[in-house]
Amino acid sequence: MKGFMQWFKSSTKMKRWIFLILVGIILACYGLAEILVMKEISFQEVGKVIVIFVLGFVSIVLGLVFLNKRTLEVLIESTDERMEKKKNVNVKSLIFNKTVYDQGPNIVVIGGGTGLNTVLSGLKNYTSNLTAIVTISDYGEEVTNSRKELELLPLGDVKDSLVALATKEGEINKLFNYKFTKGRLNGLNFSDIYFSAMKEINGNFEDSIIKSNEVLNMIGKVIPVTLDEMKIVAELANGYIVEEKSRIADVVSEKVTKINRILLNPSNCRPAPGVLEAIKNADCIIIGPR
User: Fold this and answer.
1) Before 105, cis peptide (omega within 30)?
2) Residue 205's pLDDT is what?
3) What domain range includes position 79?
4) Which pTM does this prediction carry?
């Protein structure tokens, strides 16, 4: 009983909405009663009854909405330990309160490709403590003219992860995937130009990617898994080595053989700075699907 009476304290601000609901019920019931007892109804009386009934109905709806809203705020004030200032919590301000997301779980997602980016796009709505450890490889595919011209590492997966974690994901996606078609920049991708410029400013690719977390106003951060260029290599049962990932299935079919093992080349790739620390401090580690 004591706990029940707590809801009626002045600090809970519940009584006003309960009173509004009661007023609404009275007005609605009065409107219905007027219709039931009247033998003859004029247009003026009909209008009066409708106005009273509508006022009562609206009062009930508004009272229920604000009563539930205030109930949620009181529950948050009582139970959510993440809130620094619990008095007079406003649900609307709570929704946009970034400190709640900053205090979310520390999640590390490892992988590359569209599957990883789909996971990142979803998780950024629940926590800001999000780290993507992304592959640095084109897996032996042909180097694009844009990469050759600017002498870049294969940063396609890094680019896509930066886009996935950006607050303005759609706009950044259009910008990073834009390919110039005129003048001296013909054939170059904006993302390659961006990474090249960031490398010149910061001195290396590692700092370029880390600084991009701030430049693009991202939720979370992206770390390359390694700064050593690598390939996925397939060794077939007959000893044949396939160094292009996209050709593995075709070569296996043509040679009518099976894959003996899959390995990285070089096999001694070093983790980039920050990778091991991120994994060590993670509350949850997700191996991102491709």
Assistant:
1) no
2) 75
3) 2-96
4) 0.59
